[in-house]
Specification:
The complex is a heterodimer of chains A (151) and B (414). Chain A is of the alpha+beta class and 151 residues long. Chain A has four helices and seven strands, in the order H-E-E-H-E-E-E-E-H-E-H. In chain A, helix 2 packs across helix 4 (140-148). In chain B, the strands form three sheets. In chain B, strands 1-2-5-8-11-14-17-20-23-26-29-32-35-38 form a 14-stranded parallel β-sheet. A 13-stranded parallel β-sheet of chain B has the order 3-6-9-12-15-18-21-24-27-30-33-36-39, with no helix packed on it. In chain B, strands 4-7-10-13-16-19-22-25-28-31-34-37 form a twelve-stranded parallel β-sheet. Classes of the chains: A alpha+beta (151), B mainly beta (414). Chains A and B meet through loops of A and strand 25 of B.
């Protein structure tokens, strides 16, 4: 009887444990609290902030999409351990979009914290952003390729 | 005879046109008129003249200053911006004094400032007050300017970024002195600035850094106070700097520091005070710097030197009540420590020459463990850790053998 009664409790506990181990994902960025995991500058401008999430759920934060790209190719986290990479929507800071779904504009019209001058928007908004600011549109694979190339 | 009639006609035209009014050396702007706006005053003032602004609220479209002029505000002369800059200056020799500038809305695309100097020389902003402006004073491609005794107060929070209070871009030979800057992204930011002097400012409560140099060579900053910012000062990709007599205090946070040096060469760090920071001074990829006569007191880590920092010389510094005096991430070390005072030193001075007779190893074994596995910090005050440290001090196995002070001072130098 007592064993039966404890079943719902056990189920609740199990449920809570499963929830606590929810799939890895990005975290909200509190400005001024964390350093960029690549360049060590404090993250203070939400327009350019970016994240990399590993399969084990560890989240690396960056102040510049350029830092994310350099970090992603320098081998600190092996590619097979990367669960997802995220960038802020330049027009709506605080809204994260998967890096592979983003259009990146390299432009002289804005200055990013580490001077990559990369801004990200959803792919559908890339052309209108280029029309407004000027510059070169890239996709995530090209951004990574640039980060791999010696400067 | 045929010549005189057109000449008379021309003269009459000139008199009729407002531009023909003789330019005035002094124009007074007053809400009660006759001149009610600075824009109007600028059309009347003689080059090199002066505009006096009487008390009142002024809200004009962007005020474009294209002649050399001095604009002076009476107490209570307030300019209110909006979704645009308040002043844009494109002439040399323009001075602002005693103005209050308020409210410039943030922009996600442009670095909108209360006062923008664009490609000018010899500009001055002094004794003015800026409140709630996205960027405060912005110098782009300018030289020979002075920004003195202003108060620049922003409204940044953890949710909303702000611009920088004082921002120098591609500028040289600029003096920034006696200002109080707060509530911005960086208090004072210099990018591609050369030969700048930053002296006697108070920078506090900024989201990122009190003062921030990027690619800015041959600059000096002296006698400033950087208190309670996200982190104190970051100097990056820069050479030949002088950093003297500054106070770096109360920069607490998981990854906060008083002074971050990244890729800094041939610079001097003299007589500064690092007090109550998570990390007092952090060196990465920095070489041949002289660190002399500084005081590191009550920091978590007084100095963190990464292995890629080479040939930095530490002398006559004072280390007091820090949890860790020096930490590093490797056994190899190529920086030298000589003749510093360490309150953790337990040696003796039998020959009474003022220097300890046995070397001091400032890197605790435990700090290496913490560098590799931060949560182990919880064991900081445990007996076992003290034992480990003592054993390592007698026979260094894991800590950098060359990172030691062969001539530790017995007393705090005067």
């Amino acid at each position: 009887m007592s064993r039966l009664a404890s079943l719902p409790a056990a189920a609740t506990l199990l449920g809570a444990a499963v929830l606590a181990c929810a799939a890895p994902g990005p975290v909200p960025i509190v400005l001024g609290e964390r350093d960029c995991d690549h360049c060590h500058m404090t993250i203070a401008d939400p327009r350019f902030a970016a994240e990399l999430v590993t399969r084990t759920g560890k989240v690396y934060l960056f102040d510049d999409a350029g830092c994310l790209a350099t970090f992603a190719v320098n081998g600190t986290v092996p590619p097979e351990q990367v669960q997802s990479a995220w960038v802020n929507d330049f027009r709506h800071p605080g809204t994260l979009i998967p890096a592979q779904d983003a259009a990146f504009l390299r432009t002289d019209a804005v200055r990013s914290p580490m001077a990559s001058n990369l801004v990200a928007v959803p792919r559908s908004a890339g052309d209108s952003l280029r029309a407004a600011l000027g510059g070169t549109l890239l996709d995530w694979a090209q951004v990574l390729a640039d980060a791999r190339a010696p400067a | 005879m045929t010549l005189r009639a057109p000449a008379r006609l021309l003269g009459g035209l000139l008199l009729a046109a407002p531009a023909a009014l003789p330019a005035q050396a002094l124009v007074v702007v007053d809400p009660a008129g006759p001149v009610r706006t600075v824009t109007e005053a600028l059309a009347r003032v003689a080059p090199g003249g002066r505009i006096n602004v009487r008390a009142g609220n002024y809200s004009e479209p962007v005020i474009r200053v294209a002649v050399p002029v001095t604009i002076v505000g009476d107490s209570g002369a307030v300019f209110v911006g909006g979704d645009h800059e308040i002043f844009v200056v494109t002439a040399d020799d323009v001075t602002f004094r005693g103005l209050t500038l308020r409210h410039v809305e943030p922009s996600y695309v442009e670095d909108r400032a209360a006062i923008l100097f664009d490609s000018v020389a010899n500009c001055v902003v002094e004794d003015s007050r800026l409140e709630g402006t996205f960027f405060g004073i912005y110098l782009s491609r300018s030289r020979g300017c002075r920004i003195s005794r202003n108060v620049v107060q922003g409204t940044s929070t953890a949710e909303m970024s702000a611009g920088n209070a004082i921002h120098l871009f591609h500028s040289r030979d600029v003096t920034v002195d006696g200002n109080r800057v707060t509530g911005h992204r960086d208090g004072i930011y210099l990018e591609f600035a050369e030969d700048a002097r930053v002296i006697g400012n108070l920078s506090t409560g900024n989201l990122r850094y009190g003062l921030h140099f990027m690619f800015s060579h041959r600059c000096e900053y002296r006698d400033n106070r950087f208190v309670n910012n996200g982190a104190g000062v970051a100097v990056m990709y820069t050479r030949s700097m002088l950093m003297q007599g500054n106070t770096f205090a109360d920069n607490w946070g998981a990854a906060s520091y008083g002074l971050l040096l990244k890729e800094i060469r041939d610079s001097r760090i003299l007589g500064n005070s690092f007090r109550e920071n998570t990390v007092g001074m952090y060196l990465e990829g920095s070489a041949r710097n002289e660190v002399t006569g500084n005081t590191f007191e009550a920091n978590g880590w007084a100095v963190r030197v990464l292995a890629d920092a080479e040939g930095n010389r530490f002398a006559r510094n004072v280390f007091l009540r820090n949890s860790f005096d020096v930490s590093t991430n490797s056994r190899s070390n190529v920086s030298t420590f000589r003749g510093n005072y360490w309150d953790h030193y337990e040696g003796y001075d039998l020959d009474h020459d003022g220097f300890g007779d046995v070397p001091f190893h400032p890197v605790r074994l435990f700090s290496l463990l913490v560098a590799q596995h931060e949560p182990s910090l919880i064991l900081l005050r445990s007996f076992f850790v003290d034992l480990l440290d003592a054993a390592e001090r007698v026979m260094p196995v894991l800590t950098p053998e060359t990172l030691r002070d062969d001539r530790p001072l017995m007393r705090v130098p005067a």
